[in-house]
Design brief:
heterodimer; A: 311 residues; MetI-like fold; globular; B: 437 residues; alpha/beta; D-Maltodextrin-Binding Protein, domain 2; 19 helices; 12 strands; 47% helix
Chain lengths: 311, 437
Amino acid sequence: MAVITPTRSVRAKHPAPSRRAGIKSLYPYFLIGPAAILTLVFLVYPVGSVFYYSLQHSNVTQPWNDGFAGLDNFIAMGADPLFWRSLAFTGQWVAVEVGLQFIFGLALALLINKTFIGRGIARALVFSPWAVSGILTTTIWILIYNPSTGIGRYFADIGIGEYGVSLLSGSGTTFWAVVLAEMWKGIPFFAILILADLQSVSLELYESADVDGAGTIRKFVSITWPHIRQAIIIATLLRAVWEFNNVDLLYTLTGGGPASSTTTLPLYVAQTAIHDRDFGYGSALTVVAFLILTFFSLVYLRITKSKEDDK
Amino acid sequence: MIFSRKSAVALAAILASTMALGACGTGADAGSSENGEVVLELWDTDTRPERTENLKTLISMFEAKNPGIKVNYLGLPTDSYMQKISTAIATKATPDIITPKASDISALVAQGALAPLDGDFKNGGWEDKISPAMTKSSRAAAPDGKLYLTPATSLADVIYYRSDLFKDAGLSAPTTWDDFYAAAQKLTDKQSGKFGYTFRGGSGFFSQFVEMVYPQAGVESVFRADGTSTLDDPAVVEAAEKYAALYGKDTAASDLTADFKTMVAQFGAGGAAMLSHSIGSYPNHVAALGADKVGAVVPFPAKSGKSVLTGRMTTGFSMFQASAHKEAAWKFLQYTMSVEGNSFWAQKSGYLPGNKEVAKESWVTQNPAMQASMTALENKDAVLLEQPYYLPEFNSITATEMLPEWQKVLQGQLSMKDFLTASAAKLTKAQQKYMKK
């Protein structure tokens, strides 16, 4: 489809080179101007500056070393064990979080889509964690895991486990403790999106399937799943990107520890750039994270689109 | 669509005013009010409510003594104040006065942000009025050895103990390292959730590590003369192994990630009988437990008899180089070192006063934590251990790089010797680079 710009059409209609026509031709630019300026200032410039700094030595504590670094920062990553550890943990974190949130979100959506007494209250309860702010979520979970006042203390009181133990500092428990906290907030997101799609499925389809003798699984595979598939693709992609970039919950719950065992790549970026004030290396890490996210998003959309086209 | 010239002009005016609005959102105040009053901007990096209240009172006292100077207080988030300061430096919107930690001085000086105070300090006669040890410590925090932080007050490391629990267990105040370890063991009762000691396994671990390991080892400096780190000294390794063995045995397992707030809360709630921290937290312990239940001793001498004193970190005020009111700002800084200002500020903060006259006041001599710190200085074998805050890499090495490895040691995934050898190499590299400069 050919694109006709407003400028061209105005000129074609009013070819006279009058001053009024000149101003008129600028009208569309006035309209898009504020949005373009905002985009340039708040999106293009910050992203561009991160790419720029990734090629620089820029450490606030050692300004005498500042200058062009070429690919030094990227080469340094190869020998940085914290980078590889945080990258591996990020992959594990995204896969486990998105997978579990999807499974439980789908189950919850199917459950609260049924008609039962108190469904309104059940729906409100299911969605409520999503409405709670990030810092409140972490505060709630910090209190739950607190060894003196949290759930561990009450278990110890009845003889289960020991006093002075926190799930957030155990070598085998920290990962699942933070996964649980993040799931609590993430599951409602899947449930909301899937439920919205479920409600658009015509009941007549299920009635027809009942007449044909289809069972629950058959109805799910042939009617429900095709309807909610698009919502799931979008939800998993968005959630994967958000989980990849998760900093707030992990930073406040564990600070990336113990022993860096819960440090994601963005959290490592925060530690490098904000705590150590090494903006050059921090920017290079950010560029790598950006490229990884872009690559996997494109691959994911491509795969899901081809499957859609095959159908 | 009809589009008149008038409309175009109006639209352009709206756009221009929108941009102008955006532009006037920032920019430092010139610092003078309409009535000719000098207005100083003071940013505080520690926003504990009681401290904020005390600092505001100090400001009021100063303003009453100095008509024509007004000080505006701004509290920065304790966890992220350096972000705000770095942004202010980059945008040339710094305030007049700041309360940096000694460990921040190196980074701020590297950016040329702070004003050296040596000339004013000498001309004002403060070299005679202020503790020489604190002045030396303040200068040691800067990479160029100049004075950027007023030696108004100082911290000092002590070991707090629950005097009531010690009495109930038939123990007297510990005076040796053997006493300390024996008490930690005796006062631990895991079945009832009581532990002999609370361990700093998380953020800020290095200061507690130095406090408990170096005096025990009798090693008085973080570096040898050739710039190599003493972290891998056999005596340090041995002391560190003994100290780390407390974790999980006589401390809560959750101490693996404990920071300052967690430790203080655990001690205050009765979960731990001993705690290593600075004298600054004494008011918190008294508020939580009562003065009769809190005792304090300084880390004990080594077997060699040498007494290594740690944590003598100056806590004062600094002036920004870009301040337009340096004279007025210096007046405020002087007030915090004067008998009146220093007495109020040090007492309310729980810090050792820098002013020699104030150090003789009864609130200093009657505070057990301060008394222990002052008395320790009288020992002829006492030496002050200075941490290398002047190294630009100090924070990133001890926090970002060493903390995860330290937690691995506590979890039994890494040997203490390997940990200290690798950490010593990093500090040595930074120190030798510094020495070459």
